[in-house]
Amino acid sequence: TILSKAVEAEKIQMIKDANKTKTKKRDVFLDSSRVTKRVSDLIKTVEEFEIGLFTPYYSAGTLNGIPVKGVNFKRSSTNDLMYSRFSLGISPNAYNSFSRESFNENIYSRRLIAAKYGIGTEDFDDVYLISMGIWDSESKEAPVFNTVNSAGFSKSLNKLSLNGEVAHSFNQIRDTLLILNEQPNSILKNAMYDRLSMKMEAKWKITSTSQIIGSFDQKNQNFKSLGSPFLRNDYRAIDFSVIQKTFNNKLVFSGFYKHFVGNVSNLSENTNKLSGLGAILQSNFKKRPNIIVSYTPFEQSNNHQDSLLRTNNKFRSLNAQVTNQKSIDKHLFYSVISYNLALVEYQESNFQQSNTRSISFNQLYQNDKTRASLGYTSILTFPAIDSLSSNAFHGSIDYKLRKLKIGANLQHKYTLSNGKQLSQALFIERQVLKSLTIKLSSGYRFIDGIWGLNNTGIFYGTMNVRFEL
């Protein structure tokens, strides 16, 4: 009948509409699944991700471990053929953080942006480009603008491995009366060369137990990187070493030659030349104490402004270290004794040279729940520099309690000039989620007669959040 045909047609139309609705829902579900998969694939390519305070490392001559507040991450392609790094934030404009003049300054005010793009596996077999910019705001007196661009590579060819980098910098200091571009030469070719840094290293594995290493490092007089602000410039260094392993790698001997020359630009009347031979002997026993004995003809300082982080020039440096490790059931005992004797040129004492002897001892104990360490360091100078001769003690302990870890540490240092630094702190750490850990620390530091501070107390606190993808 006509009515039954109409009913049948209506049913067919309803079925068609229902199928269309199912198709739309399926398409929406598939689209959301694709988006979710893309986000998941993107997260999987992120190897490093940091927000807050971090110390990025791109290369020794560009961005080299300075503290930065901001965001930092590294991505690698799913097939590991490409990788990229990106850092954005603010960095310190000064590193002498214990000087009285810097107490009221906004130390973190220098803007930073850096990127690195590479093809291959980073630091093993790759070719990369780095570009970095660091600058002050225009409101700062005599603001600085610094850029560094570099190209580098690392390559392994059977028994030979090579790595190198060429970097170029541009540094500008803007003053109300003067703009300094650090371009002493009017000829562009010379100006470009003056701002270059060149570094090359080669390792040749002669046999399974023998290796030869050679390196060349030159930084011209106008090369400057605020991402690695304590590098020297206007120098050339050449190192050559031979490594020999014997007795099934139980003993390792290394002999080396070091050559250093400053004033490669010939702009100064004085040229500093240093060269000499050195050696290192190291043992690698599993169940016996191990030793490391070395002699180095000279060690260059890092030219750091902050005495906390500064290293001084050393000459005729003799080092010895004995380590011993022993396990009893679940209890681990590890001991280290170190000795150093060197002629040191102290920058903080008008470059006075003094024979310096240092002895240190550290004992570590660890089991499933407890970790404790105790140490002592003695430094003695001759001719005596009382402010640098010191005795220091340090200790720490932490204990695991389910998802909690609690602990304490102390560091006490006393100089022969009656200076003292007394520091002690407590911390508590908790695993909130499987991939999220929060750590809270608080402490008190008292400084008297050190770094120009007298009878000064400092309370401090920190919070660290660690999230693992």
- Rg, rounded, reads 30 Å
Q: Which class of secondary structure composition applies to the elements?
A: mainly beta
β-strand number = 23
SSE run: HEEEEEEEEHEEEEEEEEEEEEEEE
Residue windows where pLDDT falls under 50 for at least 5 positions: 97-104, 182-187
In DSSP terms (H or I, runs of 4 or more residues), the helix count works out at 2
Shape: globular
Proportion of residues in β-strands: over 45%
- State the end-to-end CA separation: 68 Å
Helix content: 10-25%
The average pLDDT value, as a whole number, equals: 83
Main sheet? 23 strands, antiparallel
General description of the model:
The protein has a 23-stranded antiparallel beta sheet that branches. 13% of the residues are buried. It has helices at residues 2-44, 188-194; strands spanning 46-54, 68-76, 82-92, 108-121, 125-135, 144-157, 160-174, 179-180, 196-207, 210-219, 235-246, 251-262, 273-283, 290-299, 313-328, 331-346, 352-366, 370-382, 390-401, 404-415, 420-433, 436-448, 456-467. It is mainly beta.
